[in-house]
Write a structure and sequence with these properties.
The chain is α+β, with helices and mostly antiparallel strands. It has seven helices and 19 strands.
């Protein structure tokens, strides 16, 4: 049964179920709909140029979005499915991702924000690896979707441009104030570093608890984003990384997403805790006490210790997080590979979980961090790696740590 509050797209094969959002200035309304033939949930973006003050010339943004999306195939970019034109406006249909945007008020821990940053940089690296490269031009909290499992998706390619190392200027400045790099705001040539500024600004929003509409309060009269005083818990290397991401001059930023990603992965998130001298004295006393008690307590201690790397046999490697397959040989062509650990051998409490992936040359190529709570049923953690054409086959290593202690590791043979 059709809801009179929503447009009727049944002639085009879609049934609207609810409104997801709208942009009054751009004349756009976004709906959640069901594809009638398959029952699949989809997103329908309707550009209502016939009912708003928006001009027909703005149709070009939607036509551009279609052309860009048709050429992309990445699990973190909702796929283009269809488009059609009605009396009220033009409609674009995309794959639906059940995840709120970063503009939705949620409490993110710094380790989770780093994980989100890594995921977005991986998406940007994919876009920048296209021929010609794709520049998103409107990267902001509203256009990054993240679900409860820290799956990250990039949406809204209406302002996207394709081009070589530098993207030519357009006649109209397009983007979101506060998140546009200076070169975009002043309608100058864009580079692969332009989206990095927008990502840096987005991450600063999350880390400081600043909303998109209040972000201007962090920008000083020199055009620099001042956030350092609001994040005293962050490590200095991470703060320096963020500062480099949002340098006003693009020459002072990282040149591209891959360079920014390589610089971010090994960084510690939090500032080391300094132990006062009194505390060090207590540590010394504790060590002395342990040394005295060692001869009589050794057998008891050995009986309480868990075996070395107790979770080795619980690491599962597959190409599907829901699969029960446990692979030890994979092809680079497998695409996304999931590393999963599920165990019931933990005390019910919060743990800082870290996943690290090393290539055949023992270089850290990916790392994920998050805080998870173990329950009576145990703890399940998983992360993934997207293989690229540039990756080299050989023996790769996956390591899993709880509270900075390595608890399991496993090698997998990567085939060409």
């Amino acid at each position: 049964m059709t809801n009179n509050l929503f447009p009727n797209f049944s002639n085009y094969g879609y049934q609207v179920t609810r409104e997801l959002g709208q942009n009054h200035a751009g004349g756009r309304v976004t709906y959640l709909a069901t594809e009638i033939n398959t029952g699949n949930a989809v997103v329908v973006k309707q550009f209502q140029f016939a009912r708003t003050t928006a001009s027909w010339s703005q149709y070009s943004a939607y036509d551009r979005e279609i052309q860009v999306l048709r050429g992309l195939e990445h699990p973190s970019i909702p796929r283009y499915l269809d488009s059609f034109q009605t009396a009220a406006g033009f409609c674009l249909v995309q794959e639906y991702k059940d995840a709120p945007s970063l503009a939705t008020k949620r409490q993110w821990k710094p380790q989770q924000i780093k994980q989100i940053a890594i995921a977005v940089l991986e998406i940007l690296h994919y876009l920048q690896s296209q021929i010609p490269p794709v520049i998103h031009r409107d990267l902001k909290p509203e256009n990054i979707l993240v679900d409860d499992r820290i799956n990250v998706y990039l949406v809204d390619f209406g302002f996207a441009r394709t081009g070589g190392g530098e993207v030519a200027v357009s006649s109209v400045v397009k983007g979101t104030l506060g998140f546009m790099p200076p070169e975009q705001m002043f309608n100058r040539q864009l580079t692969l570093a332009s989206d990095l500024y927008s990502l840096g600004a987005t991450l600063i929003c999350l880390l400081t608890g600043t909303t998109s509409t209040e972000f201007g309060s962090l920008i000083d009269d020199r055009g620099r984003i001042n956030f350092q005083q609001q994040v005293p818990q962050l490590s200095q290397p991470l703060i320096s990384w963020l500062q480099k991401m949002v340098e006003p001059n693009f020459h002072d930023r990282y040149a591209a997403a891959e360079e920014a990603l390589d610089a971010l992965i090994p960084l510690e998130v939090l500032r080391p805790i300094k132990i006062p001298q009194v505390a060090w004295a207590m540590v010394g006393l504790l060590v002395t006490s342990l040394a005295i008690a060692m001869p009589i307590g050794i057998k008891f201690w050995q009986s309480q210790l868990v075996p070395e790397l107790p979770f080795n046999d619980k690491i599962q490697i597959s190409t599907d997080p829901k699969s029960s397959d446990n692979l030890d040989r994979l092809s680079i062509k497998s695409g996304r590979v999931y590393f999963t650990i599920e165990t019931a051998e933990l005390t019910a409490q919060d743990y800082q979980v870290t996943c690290q992936i090393f290539d055949r040359q023992e270089r850290l190529v990916a790392m994920g961090q998050s805080t998870l709570k173990a329950s009576a049923e145990g703890l399940k953690a998983w992360c993934w790696y997207d293989f690229q054409k540039a990756d080299q086959p050989g023996k790769w290593m996956f390591k899993f740590a709880l509270d900075s202690q390595i608890m399991g590791q496993k090698k997998v043979t990567i085939l060409p």
